């Protein structure tokens, strides 16, 4: 028993612990905590991380230089952000859980936070008007979230996106808010885009025995959608598309087109081939291929039915002002009749007759007025004139 007591006493002295479990007054201080980042100047909120280097101890910190730093200060439990603009002094200390053990040295940091020097997200392209669609990208040094005026919540930005609905659209972009920070406090960049309908074409035929498809020797209509002003158009079978005008569709020519009309009638005796629709806008600049509404780049000109002859072809003429038909060409070919899209001969005759009758009525009325004034003159005056 005496030997065991001696061994226990020797061990207690060796590790520096009193018999009551408390460290002796001369026990060394515990290690100070590490604080990241180091002191410096920042243009954004500072993300603070502390690391405990001593066992059986807790980290306490303060952002108030005048307040005492002890166990009544804020206990560190997880990383946090400092948002305050200006100079912030941070002090941190490790306090042992063992009573009587000295606290660590104080770790100090000085952070100067400046506002508005970190670049905001950049939305590209710049606000403007685009035909058909626009591909939007966002560049930023930080994680970014965005939304459009068609959405009610922000989405983390990961890759470019497309806006293709005609109209005005606003893109809102902002940096992802730090943990614990109100997202609405981040500066939001807004960019407004105007999307106009794309320039497209479609084609139809009023030929019953052609399955309403464009066919040689049979008139067909090319429909244009999305013109923004006067332009020029031609049809070509050349493999280079619109680069050259040496392969215009036989019996056709370059014609003027404008937004007030949608349909233009053509007829050709050319051989069956794939046909490009070429249009030049912007004061008749270079010609460019126009895509079809179904996404194709050409339409196929078919062979004429055996009952059709190419001896007499009508000239290329613009159709009266109409709206672009439905997507299905056969649905708007009217089964060989144009009475739904074009003014019939009967209508022309009717309005001509109405105008002629009105003219005759007005002429007869004026004659009656002249005769009435003549009979109202004195008889002697009429005899003298006679």
Automatic annotation (TrEMBL):
Alphabetical list of InterPro entries matching this protein? GH29D-like_dom (IPR059177)
Transmembrane parts of this sequence = 342-362
Indicate the segments forming the GH29D-like beta-sandwich domain, all copies.
Answer: 37-98
At the top level of its lineage, which domain of life is listed? Eukaryota
Pfam short name (any one): CHB_HEX_C_1
Q: Which keywords accompany this UniProt record?
A: Membrane, Signal, Transmembrane, Transmembrane helix
Signal peptide range in chain numbering: 1-19
**Designated name of the protein:** GH29D-like beta-sandwich domain-containing protein
Q: Specify the taxonomic lineage.
A: Eukaryota, Discoba, Euglenozoa, Kinetoplastea, Metakinetoplastina
């Amino acid at each position: 028993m005496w030997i065991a007591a001696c061994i226990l006493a020797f061990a207690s002295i060796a590790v520096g612990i009193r018999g009551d479990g408390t460290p002796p007054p001369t026990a060394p201080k515990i290690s100070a905590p590490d604080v990241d980042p180091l002191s410096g100047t920042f243009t954004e909120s500072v993300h603070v991380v502390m690391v405990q280097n001593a066992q059986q101890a807790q980290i306490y910190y303060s952002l108030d230089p005048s307040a005492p730093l002890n166990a009544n200060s804020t206990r560190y439990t997880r990383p946090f952000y400092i948002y305050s603009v200006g100079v912030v002094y941070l002090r941190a200390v490790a306090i042992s859980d063992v009573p009587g053990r000295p606290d660590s040295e104080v770790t100090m940091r000085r952070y100067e936070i400046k506002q508005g020097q970190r670049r905001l997200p950049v939305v590209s392209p710049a606000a403007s008007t685009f035909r058909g669609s626009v591909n939007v990208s966002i560049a930023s040094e930080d994680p970014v979230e965005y939304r459009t005026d068609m959405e009610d919540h922000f989405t983390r930005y990961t890759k470019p996106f497309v806006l293709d609905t005609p109209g005005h659209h606003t893109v809102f972009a902002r940096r992802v808010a730090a943990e614990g920070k109100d997202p609405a406090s981040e500066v939001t960049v807004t960019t407004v885009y105007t999307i106009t309908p794309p320039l497209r074409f479609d084609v139809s035929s009023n030929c019953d025995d052609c399955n309403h498809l464009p066919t040689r020797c049979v008139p067909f209509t090319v429909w244009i959608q999305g013109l923004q002003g006067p332009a020029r158009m031609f049809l070509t079978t050349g493999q280079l598309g619109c680069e050259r005008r040496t392969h215009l569709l036989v019996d056709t020519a370059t014609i003027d087109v404008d937004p007030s009309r949608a349909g233009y009638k053509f007829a050709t005796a050319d051989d069956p081939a794939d046909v490009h629709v070429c249009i030049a806008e912007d004061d008749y600049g270079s010609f460019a291929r126009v895509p079809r509404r179904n996404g194709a780049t050409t339409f196929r000109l078919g062979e004429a039915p055996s009952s059709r002859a190419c001896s007499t072809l009508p000239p290329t003429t613009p159709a009266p002002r109409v709206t672009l038909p439905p997507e299905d060409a056969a649905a708007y070919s009217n089964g060989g009749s144009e009475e739904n899209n074009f003014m019939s001969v009967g209508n022309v005759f009717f309005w001509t007759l109405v105008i002629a009758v009105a003219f005759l009525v007005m002429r007869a009325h004026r004659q009656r007025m002249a005769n009435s004034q003549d009979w109202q003159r004195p008889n002697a005056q009429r005899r003298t004139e006679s």
